[in-house]
């Protein structure tokens, strides 16, 4: 049977009896896509070394595993050996002759991740070994960590020293029993220690600095209390429930979600309540990366100030308990299903999953909080993604997947045999990418597939911005629905700006006549400035920010002609988002340098103090309405609402500006370029991609609302 959490697994005896080319072929066959030449060469190097090294272990009934994916963390260990009850983690650096500290830290991190998150490793002795194949020495001392966690201090060796190191460990620890036979498909299960560390870390609330939170405490406390009551009722009655929480941008939805995760896990006690945990999930990679890093850096710095010895990687590991990517959660459940899917029905494959006493084949948490639930994928997008194998996590190929992401997420929680609750945090009108289903898909799925689930809905979910105002219609025949004002995050008088700014942005984009009056109401307390000169915009931003305040340039992902303004797009890797949002103003990668512009994909759910919106020709105001364009190679092409997919594309493009226009805490400047008005000597436009007419209509519309210009 093909395992789904590794590329190769067998007994050590079988491994030794196979031709090395056969093992390499299995690795390549199970790998998604074409393995790079360097990857294949590294694998071949590992195979050759281990077939030579492990001859003496052939009769020990051990197992060898290549490219093991640690559940839900998205990390792969080069090689795992399970020998006489001991877990050996081997990280190979093929061809390397020196030992680097970062490489030692890498293999230790793998060992600690197994210890903290892998159920069948938590009570095992774990031995991390770094193998730099050309290194001419080896560790001479094998000793447990000073932390008494049954993780051996990292060992280092060249290829010639592997055999002696393994034999030394087996001699020193001869009575370790045996590893669980289902080790490869072990459930994800954080230990109490890591949960406690995560709570201590989170309680610093450093995410307040990067996540706007303007609802008053009474409002957020009421929402949290209501959610916790729903969870408690679900447990008491053995029910499955789902809550939909709404709120304007800046109302604190993300912080409410994180608070619920922590409070549900502890419920007022000093230690976590057994088997009642919660997890915060998001499909927004930059948001997860920035939230994690903000918490981890804050914790690391505070520990350093107190004189405590702690690595930043330890702080990051603790954050991983509460804040995770939805893709990792999804892939861990996908690894459990029968594949291929027959007759459109998902079933658990008992050979791929471990059935736990209370969780059944579900995940370890009873409660899952899904931030930005409106961004969950449609059936078409998820099915196509899994058909080709995807790009995240296990990279599983499921050629005939039958569900949308919302349906599969509910199905995953429904696998629990006792009770479960889902908390959906919903942003109105913020679907920004092709294939994002919106909240209507969740309701449709509940009606059609999960009628036994109790549904608790914010009374504001019926507003036009959610599911095109069709929530009441969609729920007409669902008898399990409860509407609750408490599930909407209102804002207090002191947070007047968030409510009014959101209303102004909606009116501006909807071309509503109330926009001008709304602008008058907020302009004295929240400056919105208009310019046609990017250098003036930069100067305005520099003059506004004080101390550690953050500023940055924002553009839509459909923008194309920003380079003439000296602007570059922030690369999409999550590490770039971390530098952009969190590094200080002395770092050229930071947002304050105003060189790299972030898109709606990178800033949704996050914010800055002051922003510049660089408004390109992708969305233009013309004759009283918006028109939408995409840029290909040399020209702009209009997107017309002639098909359903193009109508969705237009919605996403409009929502992109909705997101950008609500990212600033304290004020923003909108730069609508003048374009290039020059012609060549022959009378042709110097730059036909930036004609003034592409921008003038938008500028005049914004100016007509009364927005002040510099």
Summarize the structure.
This protein is of the alpha/beta class. Helices cover 36% and strands 18% of the residues. It is built from 22 helices and 24 strands.
Name the features.
single chain, 710 residues, alpha/beta, eight-stranded parallel sheet, seven-stranded parallel sheet, 22 helices
Q: How would you classify the quaternary structure?
A: single chain
Round the mean pLDDT to the nearest integer and report it: 88
Q: Tally the helices: what do you get?
A: 22
Distance between the termini: 68 Å
Largest sheet: 8 strands, parallel
The amount of beta strand, in percent, is: 15-25%
Structural class from helices and strands? alpha/beta
The rounded Rg comes to 27 Å
Question: Helical percent range?
Answer: 25-40%
The number of E-state strands comes to 24
Residue windows where pLDDT falls under 50 for at least 5 positions: 492-496
> Any idea what the shape is?
globular
